[in-house]
Each structure stands twice: as C-alpha cells, then as structure tokens.
From TrEMBL:
Belongs to the iron-sulfur dependent L-serine dehydratase family. Residues 148-220 form the ACT domain. It catalyses: L-serine = pyruvate + NH4(+). One of its GO terms (molecular function) is 4 iron, 4 sulfur cluster binding. GO terms for biological process: gluconeogenesis. Its cofactor is [4Fe-4S] cluster. It comes from the Bacteria. CDD domains: ACT_LSD. Pathway: Carbohydrate biosynthesis; gluconeogenesis. It comes from Natranaerobius trueperi. This is L-serine deaminase. Keywords: 4Fe-4S, Gluconeogenesis, Iron, Iron-sulfur, Lyase, Metal-binding. The keyword Cell membrane does not apply.
Length: 221
C-alpha cells in the first residue's frame, strides 16, 4: 500500500486538530467552491462531535474561514468571525442530527450575492481529509482531492454519454463517476472526478446543451 506524505504528517494548518480544524476548514472551502459565487449568508448545522468541539477546537472559526476562502494554514483563520462581520457576511451555527453521517459532520447552507442557494453536507474523516456526501437534493461522493465536474440535467437518455464523451475527447481520464436522480424523468446529477483539469471550453460546450441546467467545475483543495 502506498502512503503519501499527507497521510503521515497531516496537513499544514492553524489550530489544534486536523479533523476539527483543518478538515472543518476544507469543508467550508469546498462549499464555497461549489457555490461558485461570493457568499453573503451562511447557516452551518453542526453534528455530534463537531457540535462538541465548536469552541474548544475552533471548529466554528474553521468552517466559517473556509466559507470566506481562508485556507487551513492562514493565520487569519482564527479571526474568521471578525472578518465575516467586516465583509457583511451573515452567519449562524446551529445543532442538528444528520442521520447516517460521520460524527465530524456538518451541513452548510449558503446564499450568494446573486441570490443562489446551496446546501452541502460533508464530513471530516481524519488527517484533514474530507468527504462531501450531499449537494442539495443529490447524493454524491466528493473528496476534494481531484479535479471534478458536476452537472445537473434532465433525466433522459444520452445526457451521460454526451458529458463523458466530451470529457474523454479532450484526453481527460475519469477516475470516479457517480450518477443520481430525484426520480425517473425528472432532475439528475453527474459528478466525475478526473485526473486532469476540466477546461473552460468543456464547461461552455456542456452549458450550451438545452437539457443540461448547470455545470460546475471543481478544483482540488
């Protein structure tokens, strides 16, 4: 088994805990990236262990810092609440049981300047690593370690083929892919983690398809 430096040494970070601080910050960073807009309001629901460590291990300031775009190794992380106030970003932390989730989990609900809403549920699974399990109404499995593309589209034949064919035609290898839908013939989602970055041209071409409602390109954290 190959073991990377990250797994041995852990993340470079500000704070006492790789799970409750660094991982928490990365969850906020991932939610911000998926939103793809400047957040103006954040409601963070803390589950089990995250609720217990919200103050002592800096879980609150870490998640909020990530939402603001502050990385785990940035000294500003400690002052994320003050920075949020100065930027006019409203925030609140609430307790919530997230059934079936890892103890170090949270649900992040964001609103952007242009009025877009997003809900992301994820967990800090150790050593600063994370797992995103839900985006809005769709179940996903997103690690934040790879380039990724997320589409929301109509559930109809040919859409998945169009997306994967477009990606492969540009010499991009899909490392992992997951498909989800709300119900047959309604809305569906595809998330693919790739070995190479998704280009702007791929995103624009997919966005031009009438049955593809949304395309988001996600970069590794």
């Amino acid at each position: 088994m190959n073991t990377g430096v990250f797994e041995v040494l852990g993340p470079i970070m500000i704070g006492p805990s790789s799970s409750h601080t660094a991982g928490a910050c990365r969850l906020g960073l991932m939610a911000r990236q998926i939103l793809q807009g400047e957040p103006v309001k954040a409601t963070i629901y803390l589950h089990e262990s995250f609720q217990k460590t919200r103050k002592g291990h800096g879980t609150e300031v870490a998640i909020l810092g990530g939402i603001l775009g502050i990385t785990p190794d940035d000294e500003r992380l400690r002052k994320s609440k003050e920075i949020s106030i100065s930027k006019g970003v409203e925030y609140q932390f609430l307790e919530k049981e997230l059934k079936g989730q890892h103890p170090n989990s949270c649900q992040i609900s964001l609103t952007s300047k242009n009025g877009k809403h997003l809900s992301v549920t994820g967990s800090s699974i150790g050593g600063g690593q994370i797992s995103i399990s839900q985006i809005d109404d769709f179940s996903v499995n997103l690690s934040g370690q790879y380039n990724a593309i997320l589409t929301k589209h109509k559930d109809r034949p040919g859409i998945i083929n169009r997306v994967t064919k477009m990606i492969s035609s540009k010499g991009i290898n899909i490392a992992y892919m997951q498909i989800s839908r709300t119900k047959k013939g309604d809305s569906a989602s595809l998330i693919a983690e790739t070995d190479e970055p998704i280009t702007d041209n791929i995103q624009k071409e997919l966005e031009s398809h009438d049955d593809i409602y949304q395309v988001k390109v996600i970069r590794p954290l």
